[in-house]
Write a structure and sequence with these properties.
The complex is a heterodimer. Chain A has 2 domains: 3-88, Ubiquitin-like (UB roll) (Roll), CATH 3.10.20; 97-175, [2Fe-2S]-binding domain (DNA polymerase, domain 1, Orthogonal Bundle), CATH 1.10.150. Chain A is 32% helix and 12% strand. Chain A contains 6 helices and 5 strands; from the N terminus they run E-E-H-E-E-E-H-H-H-H-H. Chain A has a 5-stranded mixed sheet, covered by helices on one side. The longest helix of chain A has 17 residues, at 114-130. The termini of chain A are far apart. In chain B, a hairpin with a 5-residue loop joins strand 1 (14-17) and strand 2 (23-30). Classes of the chains: A alpha+beta, B alpha+beta. At the A-B interface, helix 1, helix 2, helix 3 and helix 5 of A face helix 2, helix 4 and helix 20 of B.
């Protein structure tokens, strides 16, 4: 078997998946949506501008998780990687704390951008857990990780309210 | 014994008889209805929030009724579904009938004749299985004479009627092949061959056009005169008014403030590009669709028309539409052409389901837009700052399809006088038929353009007359004895004075000159702008449906034909049953139009007990809080009278009438029966035991006031209710009409008002302007809104926040040029179209004015909250820079040019 016939292997929400080499240039969002029926990851612009398709990726199950744009990323780039989608956040239909905060704050309206905000914020929280910042720098961090996520309905205010609430316990002031 | 309450999967249909005499059965089903009817577990394709109660307190939402599904990433939107998700509903298995994928081959210019198209650049294994073009459509006798189907495909040898008009639809074998082929085709210059250039035709005008002339001094207006009198005389009165304007200005009695404005094409940029599934089932000739549309009933009727020709190659007997939550709308999914194309291509797929997903390039190219608009407006004020007259002319570029363009232009004209008493007014409106981007219904529906003109002119006048801008507005406010441009009366408390007062006292306004100085010292220009809008909610007359059913487990399901585009309609309507029966809905079936269409109400046969004055309208966001809520709220009343009261009577073994029942924490409290509160489930058990009605479907009509009628429920006196039709039953197939007498419709004169309900809103807003870069930063925005009684304050404020962001984009950055370099050429995406991001968003506050005296209902506010903001931004920029911009968007380049 030559390399061209080699399958691309990676994990999605901790489940191993294989993609044929012929599909190497398929966008991750298309693979998730069409092949795995994981449609929580949304296609919106397809050119990496809106961040609606944000997922988390890491080199190992417990590795550092990064934000990845599933519309721009071919599945070949995911070889031996771990991909986490919005479907991984809840357990048995029970929303996690961030999802519950989005609900409580009425953060979203149409909801199409919500999974992108959830995954971007989850990466932010991971970072804060590793490298907490002072409360005065929190908004800057939020902007760095979520500031490019586009929402057409809400004007962002209620997303930010929820994100601040969830992120606040991971600031230096709260940890100390 | 047959139990009427046994589970029943009957889906209600209605029949459309087409011009050929052929009858096509139409069914519209909401996605939740489909899932519930097939006993799908909520957590499987969860759309209900059973597992986490969204509203445990009657009348109050803890979160959106659709929130859990959306936040979990469940399948909610049309784009989430593949045909394999629908096999349990009869769609074919993918291994038997593989899902095909559709791609539209679109023209990217309007200036050249299309000579041919070819797909030679595709290798054989990537070639489409089927190509559907104008020739194939004609041979198949598809009927293109419908309101919106003319011009479906460009014919070879002709030029495109509008940007993006397809040459052909290609059906690919599957998603894998489609994706590879699309990469080759999408931006290739060799697919469509263009021949010689064509000279563009002079624009025509879409009918109707509008001419409103009002002169209170001679009691002339659209409302004051009959249709014939008005049409015979309005030109003469208009000339008299123009002559008076000229002479008063010449004599120095009136000052004129006049400018020409130009606003740009704006994309709604809803986040989910239009998407859908279709399957023509050859075994029973049914066409099955799954879509996220704002107009399911209109869409399905247009689809039926396509296949109505007796010679049509496809003998479509039924059209079944599954309606999903749209991923945003803002009007852009109202009468969208996406549905028609998907429907027309499906039968060519030889019994295979077809999937069609727009990408963002296509959505920018062909999606319905806010119109480019040219406004010429003059206001005339006397020396005391009283507005004496107005003339306004609105011309909208409708693009290559008529859509709603004339009616958007109409509302711009109707909004021209805004919240002001103007004794003499002339307002004209027209929409042009051009080959440009297609305009249609968009948030505000012409209002933003109208308010931009009058609010910036008033600001200019105030400053020149040295009158505080808020004071000048206060001196000219509409009162209850005044009329709008049609002569239509003001029938509600507009709360204009409280709105002005709430903002006038703000430090942002009071300290604006001091703050300007402080910013100057920091090297920034600073300005504060104020603007007021008087946006209508609803149309010139509105019909509405609402339905409620009680389930055996005590849960309540609300049914509505309308769609929640994210505006919160589902949540508000889910709270509506609590008013009369003390319970929130557990679930809601949005887009359940077929349920109501099957009632077969008529607007023509006045002798029928199913006659109602107005049919059901669109899923406009501004219609949900007042009109749609009213319908659902009153759907509970027949159940209270004919099911709940008899059930309680049975439980208490004495006659209890509906008016003796109130609700506390979801439990019935019976007046005069101390300590005998009845739990809801006990009542429900009695309802089912006694075989009492569990479903109610009602219709209501309002034109300034609600139609009302007497209804005779068994064992009760007649009850007069502000609704014009009631059906009750123990299941949806047993729904039957409740006898109605003494129907009183709103007076016919009300139909000439134009609009009758308003939710005024004002915004006070500060900006800084960087002289070097021309960058405008909106620093703070305080809005004051007349919202009536809020159903869900969080949703109201969310609408305001979203409206402000959208309005900022409209004023400062968003632009779709109607040229070959614009989105019509198929290369536009979010890299060329600048939306507001979170860092752009100002500090903001929304002040809700207390409901007016005796006001017990909500006002539609989804459009209102955006309407004053663009004008407030321009007024703030004027204060900051000393320059009055009249063209949107006010880009950094324009600012720099103005300041250089």
């Amino acid at each position: 078997m030559n390399d061209l016939n080699k399958k691309i292997t990676f994990h999605v929400n901790d489940i191993k998946v294989e993609v044929s080499a012929d599909e190497a240039d398929t966008a991750l969002v298309d693979y998730l949506n069409d092949d795995l029926s994981l449609t929580g990851t949304k296609f919106c612009c397809g050119i990496g501008e809106c961040k609606a398709c944000s997922v988390m990726t890491s080199t190992s199950k417990h590795g550092v998780k990064n934000k990845t744009l599933a519309c721009l990323t071919p599945v070949s780039f995911m070889n031996e990687m771990h991909v986490y989608t919005v479907e991984s956040l809840s357990e048995n239909g029970k929303p996690n704390d961030l999802q519950a905060a989005f609900l409580k704050h009425f953060s979203f309206q149409c909801g199409y951008c919500t999974s992108g905000f959830l995954m971007s914020t989850t990466v932010l929280i991971e970072r804060l857990k590793q490298n907490p910042v002072s409360q005065s720098n929190l908004d800057k961090m939020i902007d760095q990780y979520v500031g490019d996520n586009i929402c057409r309905c809400t004007g962002y205010v209620r997303y930010l309210d929820a994100i601040r609430e969830i992120a606040k316990p991971y600031t230096l002031e709260h940890i100390s | 014994m047959f139990n009427l309450h046994e589970f029943n999967i009957h889906r209600r249909s209605f029949i459309k008889t087409c011009g050929s005499g052929a009858a096509i059965t139409l069914t519209i089903t909401s996605l939740p209805s489909l899932l519930m009817a097939n006993k799908v577990q909520a957590n499987e394709l969860a759309l209900d929030s059973h597992s986490l109660n969204w509203a445990p307190t009657p009348g109050k939402a803890d979160f959106r009724i659709d929130g859990l599904s959306k936040v979990l990433g469940n399948k909610v939107f049309a784009r989430d579904f593949r045909s394999k998700d629908l096999t349990r509903y009869g769609w074919p298995d993918n291994t038997v009938k593989e899902e095909r994928v559709v791609y539209a081959l679109r023209t990217n210019t309007i200036e050249s004749v299309i000579s041919s198209y070819n797909l030679d650049m595709l290798p054989s294994h990537l070639q489409p299985l089927v190509v559907v073009d104008a020739t194939k459509i004609a041979k198949s006798h598809i009927d293109l004479s419908g309101d919106v189907s003319d011009g479906l495909f460009v014919r070879l040898g002709e030029s495109a009627l509008y940007y993006g008009q397809p040459v052909a639809m290609l059906i690919f074998k599957n998603a894998v092949i489609f994706r590879k082929a699309k990469k080759i085709l999408q931006f290739s210059k060799n697919v469509i061959q263009y021949a010689n250039k064509v000279s563009l035709q002079e624009s025509k005008t879409y009918e109707p056009t509008y001419d409103y002339v009002k002169d209170e001094s001679v009691n002339f207006s659209y409302v004051a005169k009959s249709a014939d009198e008005y049409n015979d005389n309005y030109r003469n009165v208009q000339n008299d008014v123009f002559n008076e304007m000229a002479s008063k200005v010449a004599e120095g009695d009136w000052k004129i403030y006049s400018r020409a404005f130009e606003t740009q094409v704006m994309d709604p940029m809803f986040m989910e590009p239009e998407s859908g599934l279709a399957w023509f089932n050859q075994s029973n000739n049914s066409l099955n669709l799954l879509l996220g549309t704002q107009s399911p009933t209109g869409d399905i009727k247009e689809v039926a028309k396509l296949f109505s020709d007796k010679k049509c190659a496809f003998k479509v007997k039924a059209v079944d539409l599954i309606s999903c939550y749209p991923g945003g709308g803002f009007g852009g999914r109202y009468k969208s052409y996406f549905t028609l194309y998907l429907a027309v291509v499906a039968p060519f797929a030889d019994g295979h389901p077809v999937l069609w997903h727009h990408d963002r390039f296509e959505q920018f190219q062909i999606g319905i837009k806010r119109h480019q608009t040219w406004v010429e407006e003059a206001i005339y004020l006397n020396k005391l700052g009283k507005i004496k007259a107005l003339s306004a002319s609105f011309t909208l570029d409708g693009g290559g399809r008529k859509n709603s363009s004339p009616y958007v232009a109409q509302l711009a004209a109707l909004s021209s006088c805004s919240a002001y008493k103007i004794p003499k007014a002339i307002a004209k409106a027209q929409a042009l038929d051009t080959p440009h981007l297609i305009g249609g219904a968009q948030r505000g529906f012409g209002g933003p353009q109208a308010f931009l003109a009058i609010e910036t002119l008033l600001d200019e006048a105030a400053i020149e007359l040295k009158i505080d801008p808020i004071v000048l507005r206060r001196n000219n406010l509409l009162s209850k004895t005044d009329t709008i441009v049609t002569g239509g009366p003001i029938v509600q408390d507009l709360q204009l004075e409280p709105i002005l007062s709430a903002l006038e006292k703000q430090p942002l306004w009071q300290n604006r000159f001091n703050n300007q100085q402080a910013y100057k010292e920091k090297g920034l220009l600073y300005g504060v702008g104020f603007a007021l809008s008087n946006q209508a909610y609803g149309t010139s007359g509105d019909g509405m449906f609402g339905g409620i059913s009680i389930e055996i487990d005590g849960s309540i399901t609300v049914r509505t034909p309308y769609v929640d585009m994210g505006n919160g309609a589902a949540t508000a309507l889910g709270l509506a049953p609590s008013h009369f029966i003390g319970q929130n809905a557990s679930s809601i079936k949005m887009g359940d139009a077929g349920y109501f269409d099957a009632l077969n109400l008529t607007q023509t046969d006045t002798s029928s007990d199913k006659y109602v004055l107005k049919g059901s309208g669109s899923s406009s966001a501004c219609l949900s809080a007042f009109q749609q809520y009213h319908a659902v709220q009153y759907a509970a009343m027949p159940l209270l009278v004919s099911a709940i009261a008899p059930a309680i009577s049975s439980i208490l073994n004495e006659t209890i009438t509906y008016d003796k029942i109130s609700w506390k924490d979801g439990t019935a409290v019976v007046a005069g029966v101390a300590g005998r509160n009845i739990p809801w489930q006990k009542i429900v058990n009695a309802i089912f035991t006694l075989n009492l009605p569990t479903q109610a479907a009602i219709h209501a009509t309002t034109i300034g006031e609600f139609a009302h009628a007497d209804y005779k429920f068994s064992a009760t006196k007649s009850l007069n209710l502000p609704i014009d039709y009631i059906a009750l039953g123990t299941s949806e197939v047993t729904l039957s009409t409740v006898p109605r007498t003494n129907l009183v419709n709103p007076p016919s004169i009300n139909s000439r008002f134009g609009r009758y309900a308003y939710s005024p809103c004002a915004s006070l807003l500060s900006v800084t302007v960087d002289e070097k870069t021309g960058h405008v930063s909106v620093k703070e925005c305080i809005s004051a809104l007349s919202a009536g009684v809020q159903h869900c304050p969080e949703i109201v404020s969310g609408q305001s926040q979203g409206g402000i962001a959208m309005a900022m984009g409209y004023a400062l950055s968003e632009d779709c040029p109607s040229t070959n370099n614009g989105p019509g050429n198929g290369t536009w995406n979010l890299n060329k179209y600048r939306l507001m991001k979170s860092a752009d968003i100002p500090k903001q506050e929304l002040i809700i004015i207390e409901p007016a005296k005796n006001e017990k209902t909500a006002r539609g506010i989804a459009e209102s909250v955006m309407c004053p903001v663009p004008a407030a931004i321009l007024n703030a920029i004027a204060m900051a820079t000393g320059h009055r911009f009249t063209k949107l968007p006010v880009t950094q380049k324009l600012i720099k040019e103005a300041l250089s």
